[in-house]
Amino acid sequence: MIRKVSGAKQIAAIIKKDIIAELRTKEMVVSMFLFVLLVMVAFKYAFGDSESFSDYAGGLLWIAFLFTALLGLNRSFVHEKDEGCLEGLLLAPVDRPNIFFGKMAGNFMFISIVEIITVPIYMILFKLSIEGSIALFISAIVLSNIGISTVGTLLSTVSINTKMRDMLLPLIFLPVILPVLAAAVVSTGGIMAGVAGEKLANVFSAMKLLIAYDILFLLVAYALYDFVIGE
Amino acid sequence: MEKATKLLFAIAAVLLLTGLALAFLVAPQIVIQKDGKDVSIFSQKIFYFHAPIAETSLVAFVIGAIFGALFLARKERKYDFLSFASVELGFVFGALVMWTGDIWTRSEWGTWWEWEPRLTTYLILMLLYSGYFVLRSAVSEESSKARLSAAYSVIAAVTVPFTFFAIRLIPSVHPIVFDSSGAKMEHSMLAAFLVSMFGMTVLYVAFLLLRYQTLLAGEEVDYLKNKLGG
Predict the structure, then answer these.
(1) What's the pLDDT score for residue B35?
(2) CB B43 within 8 A of CB B52
(3) Average pLDDT in the A32-56 region?
(4) Is B220 exposed, middle or buried (0-12, 13-18, 19+ CB in 10 A)?
(5) Are B13 and B202 spatial neighbours (Cβ–Cβ below 8 Å)?
(6) Chain A, window 146-205: residues with a beta carbon less than 8 angstroms from a chain B beta carbon
(7) What's the pLDDT at A2?
(8) Test mutation, A224, A226, A229, chain B, max B CBs within 10 A
(9) To the nearest whole number, what is the mean pLDDT of chain B?
(10) Band of pLDDT at residue A165, cut at 50, 70 and 90
(11) What is the rounded distance in angstroms from the CA atom of residue A166 to the CA atom of residue A164?
(12) ipTM value greater than 0.85
């Protein structure tokens, strides 16, 4: 007799699987971390000793994060496909949207871990500081990460099912994620500079946009995942 | 070409030519005060074509997404064809928006490109839908091609309003013709604009039907080829 496992347990099982695989290989977090450090070294060469670096600090941070996330997102499904694990997941009595939520939570976690380590290093390397509220800064990053992992998981499932595989992901992921990039840059940049008044209102409208984006794309992913992952 | 399509093309031609005549012969030349002198702005005439094309391209993308969603719900081949045809047309109209916009930008602002919200939005929109065509060409199996591109057409359409608002976190210099108080133009100008807009929409529907028929014919040809064993 097959016992129906609850949705939360299904999601938890997929997250657990991803964590165990990551702990064994340490592939995703380590390569993402090294990549983001290398990008920051490249910033140093691009900007030299420029005084105005702090004006662009928010934007550059998100460019680094976005490309780093792209690296990890590709990995997360190439793995599943190559080892035949995706077929296993599809055959298992798991609801399709729960596969999405499990994978998305895993990606969210790995991206967040890399960012938690990277942000302080970035601050130290470029002599930056957060003038505004730290809680607000963290919530802006968390909201952006939810958007990145939601759209990233959905679209990496699309790209893995094509001939181009990981070549396709940047082409479809970057234009869809652009609103998140813009809102993340405006909000984190504003908070780092400690803006007040009208500019602070802009920070809040950017964060509202992030919340709306996250909610809507979670719904879209929930509705579409069944079609995207394959028959 | 079916009779209905031919008729639609004829209606579109009449409307667009009327719009052209109204724009250049009837609608008054815009005159503004500059350094105490009256300066007439001829370049404003492009608005009668630029704005209707922009509106049509957005309509085409939205209709593409609706047909995409219908395909996912009903799994009927015709919805995939209609969705693909509509996105394709949206892309063509989008390219025309950027082209006509560019001509205006050059004559009015003196530069070919300005990182202005509406221009930027359209650039991103074009990149977004370029991804649609790359995705389509990257899947060889017909049913997954239809399924994945239908899903992407929905995702892309959901992204558009967010792009629109996200870009506006930075202030704009693009002229705003319509706001909450209504249209800021004279009646004859509004007439020229509306005729043009209606004509452009009819042209879109005509092209959509034509493209749909060619896609159906293409499928028929493939079927016949297979039957012959080629």
Answers:
(1) 72
(2) no
(3) 87
(4) exposed
(5) no
(6) 151, 154-155, 158-159, 161-164, 168, 171-172, 174-176, 178-180, 182-183, 186, 202, 205
(7) 61
(8) A224
(9) 87
(10) confident
(11) 6
(12) yes
Query: How far apart are the C-alpha atoms of B143 and A91, rounded to whole Å?
Result: 20
CA–CA distance, B152 with A169 (Å, rounded to integer): 12
Query: Amino acid identity, residue A3?
Result: R
Which of A129-133, B73-77, B104-108 is predicted least confidently? B104-108
Coil vs helix vs strand at B126:
helix
Residue A106: band (very low, low, confident or very high) from pLDDT cuts 50, 70, 90: very high
Q: Quick one: pLDDT band at residue B170, thresholds 50, 70, 90? A: low
CA-wise closest residue to A156 among A59, A84, A86: A86
Specify whether the CB–CB gap between B48 and B196 falls below 8 A: yes
**Distance from C-alpha of A182 to C-alpha of A178, rounded to nearest angstrom:** 6
pLDDT band at B190 (very low <50, low <70, confident <90, very high): confident
Nearest to B138 among A162, A182, A228 (CB): A162
For A153, half-sphere exposure in the C-beta direction (CA atoms, 13 angstrom radius) is: 28
Tokens of B150: 């239908």
Q: What number is the average pLDDT over the span B53-57? A: 93
- For A170-212, the pLDDT digits (tens) are 999 999 999 999 999 999 999 998 888 888 888 999 999 999 9
Of B139, B150, B159, the CB nearest to A176: B159
Residue type present at position B53: I
Structure tokens that stand for A28 in this block: 């995703």
Q: Where along chain A do its domains lie?
A: 7-229
Q: How far apart are the first and last CA of chain B?
A: 27
CA-nearest of B142, B149, B137, B145 to B222 is B142
> Given the structure tokens 């802009």, which residue do they identify?
A202
Neighboring chain B residues of A227 at a CB cutoff of 8 Å: 72, 147-148, 150-151
Model confidence, pTM: 0.90
Q: Name the pLDDT band for A157 (thresholds 50, 70, 90).
A: very high
Domain spans, chain B: 3-23+48-171+187-228
- Look at residue B29 and give its three-state secondary structure: coil
Q: At what angle do helices A168-193 and B117-137 cross, to 10 degrees?
A: 150
Q: Give the count of beta carbons closer than 10 Å to the beta carbon of residue A192.
A: 20
CA distance A75 to B48: 49
Instruction: Say if residues A148 and A180 touch (Cβ distance below 8 Å).
Output: yes
DSSP string spanning A70-132?
A: HHHHHHHHHHHHHTTHHHHHHHSS--HHHHHHHHHHHHHHHHHHHHHHHHHHHHHHTT----S
> Residue B183 forms beta bridges with which residues?
B178
d(CA A38, CA B131): 28
